[in-house]
Design brief:
8 strands, mainly alpha, 5-stranded parallel β-sheet, Rossmann fold, 3-stranded antiparallel β-sheet, 36 helices, Serine Threonine Protein Phosphatase 5, Tetratricopeptide repeat
Length: about 750
């Protein structure tokens, strides 16, 4: 303001209570003391109802400048006389609290460099040619310093965390902070925690926020300051402001606001937003097509909402718009899906927690399901869990225990538990959901097919393959009858059944189902889709198990690249693909390629799933197996033991994964010649596999071969030979004569027989 050679008009803009007048006053006082303006400093209250601007200027000229004004002239002539007779030197005129440029235009001095003009206003666009300074709320450090200046350093330090929370409660608004600080100054026995509680109960209506003290620059409390801006809004702007107060205290994507008011012209709505709410500093633009209310303004507008006749209708419109977003979130959201809805998530949470009563029966669980899918789809299971639990609780409260939404909520919660490896928690929910759907929908319904599929998935995870198979087949046949042979759900059913056959060693049954599912997914969903990535991975797994490594590798790599594109680099599904590719490299003896992938997968799973998860145990097992093959036994043993203990905790003592872990640890002990430690583990693993998988499973052949290897190492050839023979017979029958495992078993048997020859 001091450097320009032309008339300087500077506006200080911002919301009510931001400290515009205080800043202008401190500037004026400082430069009066510094004699920056020898021509004088004139403070004019534009909103003063008792004195208009002209009268204030005349009074200043008489009282402060000592001018004798011509009494017989009208007011405009007197003011022009004042400008001509203004004393020598630069002068500062402060026009405080201007709402319209027209208020001050007739009273501005001539365009001479010696006159400097400072205007405080709530208007963001008072005049295009003005220099503009927009005030923001205080930073946390400055807000704490303001509290300290009134209540003292010791009191703030004693409850520093509460002090920071108090500043945040008040939105770091200077007026609110000063009012509360002065209240606390008068109340030395009121703790900051108690002050927060008092504000939580009343906030804007609390006595501390009402009347400013005589020493303050501000002449109004927070509500009164906001009320001035409210009175300048027309009916449409007031209605829009009230609608915005329904949204969460978070950035609001403008498309959501437009969806709340579908019958209103979007350009008209934009004009109301910009010309009133943004211009009057009631609404802040936080990004492209994104806006946010200050928390105290939000509370003020929320109170105004209760006075509106259309309040309930606005809440219903808001809920309908949010439900539409929730329903747009797919079961397996991609990066694009996540990005599209991320800004809406706080508003889904607000709807789910605050506005359940405004949700129709058809919409009740939609926000919960959307939130659950958003977090579950990113592997954030702990964040998804409370939403699925609340979905079940709220559905039961509104509908009772027997309702389709209760069944869906049970199923969703069970799916999450299954993903977390919490099979004991998942099982009763799956069973309840399936039984309820049969009672409500009949035996022939797509939701019943889904329930059958999910229960089969649980049984498969528990190693209960004979229980899982009829459920998978029943679900597949039902979906084909209801949806036709060509449908994404049918492709899922085919994949699931193929996965079961693969686990049972029935590779010739699994392959055509996997290929059929992959081709169907591509036809129906396109080449770049989560289901296609899953199908590629599943087929690669089959080829790996069949020893067709050159066929498996490109599919693994394609699936991994697709998952990274769809989900980003940090996702449980990406970790699975990294692990699977590492297993393949391990089988090929490409240890230097495998190790970094194993380590990356393990670290990612721990970050996303927590330290206690069956996928983490799987990664520990696989990394230990690699270290064993590299003869790094001291590195391998603690990982094997950790994996075994984790599997037992998560899956119980009888599970295929526990059997595999026992066998792996026994293999390590055998390589260290710790035969007495290895033997009971081999025998326990073999018995468990036979019990869980049947006598003719490829995993049983593995255990037979490994136990035979132990006996051979001990020179017990007569004990080893029948086990090698059994293992080879199973492998030839289930895997084929040219499978790598079959070849290994055959070579082991031949070597044993050669060693026995005299």
């Amino acid at each position: 303001m001091q450097q320009t050679q032309r008339v300087a008009i500077t506006t200080v803009a911002g919301m009510g209570g931001i400290g515009k007048s205080e800043l202008a006053l401190q500037y004026a006082q400082h430069h009066w003391q510094e004699a920056t303006y020898p021509g004088g400093v004139c403070w004019l209250r534009v909103r003063d109802e008792d004195k208009d601007l002209g009268t204030q200027i005349v009074a200043f000229a008489r009282d402060k400048l000592g001018l004798q004004l011509p009494e017989d002239e009208d007011l405009p002539t007197q003011i022009n006389y004042i400008w001509r007779q203004w004393q020598v030197g630069d002068g500062l005129l402060v026009f405080d609290d201007v709402s319209k440029y027209e208020q001050v235009k007739p009273y501005l001095p001539p365009t001479e460099p010696r006159f400097k003009i400072l205007i405080t206003t709530r208007q963001q666009w008072l005049g295009q040619s003005f220099e503009r300074l927009c005030l923001e709320v205080l930073e946390e450090v400055a807000a704490l310093e303001l509290l300290v200046s009134f209540v003292g350093h010791e009191r703030i330090q004693r409850e520093l965390h509460k002090a920071k929370q108090l500043c945040a409660d008040l939105g770091f608004l200077p007026l609110g902070l000063e009012l509360v600080a002065r209240y606390l100054e008068r109340k030395p026995d009121v703790s900051l925690a108690k002050m927060r509680q008092r504000l939580a109960d009343k906030l804007l209506t609390h006595r501390s926020m009402q009347e400013p003290s005589a020493e303050m620059t501000a002449q109004l409390g927070v509500v009164a300051a906001f009320e001035l801006s409210w009175q300048e809004l027309d009916n449409q702007a007031q209605k829009l402001g009230c609608l915005l107060s329904i949204f969460a205290l978070a950035p609001i994507p403008w498309y959501l606001v437009e969806r709340c008011l579908p019958n209103q012209d979007s350009e008209d709505l934009e004009d109301v937003r910009d010309d009133y709410l943004v211009n009057l500093s009631l609404l802040q633009r936080t990004g492209e097509e994104t806006y946010q209310l200050h928390q105290l303004i939000r509370k003020f507008l929320s109170d105004k909402l209760q006075e509106l006749a259309e309040a309930d209708e606005l809440k219903r419109c808001y809920c309908q718009a949010i439900v539409a977003v929730a329903r747009s979130i797919p079961e397996t959201p991609t990066l694009i899906d996540i990005a599209e809805v991320t800004l809406a998530i706080p508003h889904l949470a607000e709807t789910a927690t605050v506005y359940q009563a405004c949700l129709s029966d058809d919409d009740l669980i939609s926000p919960f399901v959307g939130l659950g899918r958003f977090y579950e789809g990113q592997g954030a299971y702990a964040q998804a869990l409370p939403w699925y639990k609340q979905s079940l609780s709220d559905a039961r409260k509104r509908f009772g225990d027997e309702h389709s939404d209760v069944a869906e909520s049970l199923n969703n919660l069970a799916v999450l538990y299954n993903s977390q490896g919490r099979y004991r928690d998942a099982k009763p929910l799956y069973i309840d959901a399936l039984a309820m759907r049969k009672r409500l929908l009949g035996d022939e319904h797509t939701d019943v097919a889904t329930g059958l599929n999910n229960l089969a998935e649980l049984y498969k995870s528990q190693g209960r393959y004979s229980d899982a198979e009829p459920l998978y087949i029943q679900a597949l046949e039902m979906d084909k009858r209801l949806l036709g042979d060509e449908h994404p759900d049918v492709a899922i059913d085919l994949n699931n059944l193929a996965e079961l056959y693969k686990l049972q060693g029935r590779y010739s049954d699994a392959e055509p189902l996997h290929i059929q599912a992959l081709e169907m997914d591509k036809r129906l969903l396109g080449d770049e889709h989560p289901s296609v990535a899953t199908s590629l991975n599943n087929l690669a797994e089959l080829y790996k198990l069949q020893g067709r490594y050159s066929d498996a590798e490109p599919l693994y790599i394609q699936a991994l690249a697709m998952k990274k594109t769809l989900f980003g680099d940090e996702h449980p599904s990406v970790a699975t693909s990294l692990n699977n590719l590492a297993v393949l490299y391990n089988l090929q003896g490409r240890y230097s390629n495998a190790e970094p992938l194993y380590i990356q997968a393990l670290a990612m799973r721990k970050r996303l799933l927590g330290d206690e998860h069956h996928f983490v145990a799987q990664s520990l097992n696989n990394l230990a197996k690699l270290y064993k093959l590299q003869e790094r036994c001291n590195d391998a043993e603690p990982l094997y033991i950790e994996a075994l203990d984790m599997y037992k905790r998560l899956l119980g003592n009888e599970h295929p994964s526990v059997a595999t872990s026992l066998n792996n640890l026994a293999e390590l002990y055998k390589s260290q010649r710790r035969y007495s430690d290895a033997k009971p583990l081999y025998i326990q693993a073999l018995a468990m596999k036979k019990h869980l998988l049947g006598d003719e499973h490829p995993d049983v052949a593995t255990s037979l071969n490994d136990l035979a290897g132990l006996y051979k190492s001990q020179g017990r050839y007569s004990d080893a030979e029948p086990l090698y023979i059994q293992a080879l017979a199973i492998a030839e029958q289930r895997l084929g004569a040219n499978h790598p495992d079959t070849i290994i078993y055959r070579n082991n048997l031949e070597n044993l027989r050669r060693n026995r020859q005299p």
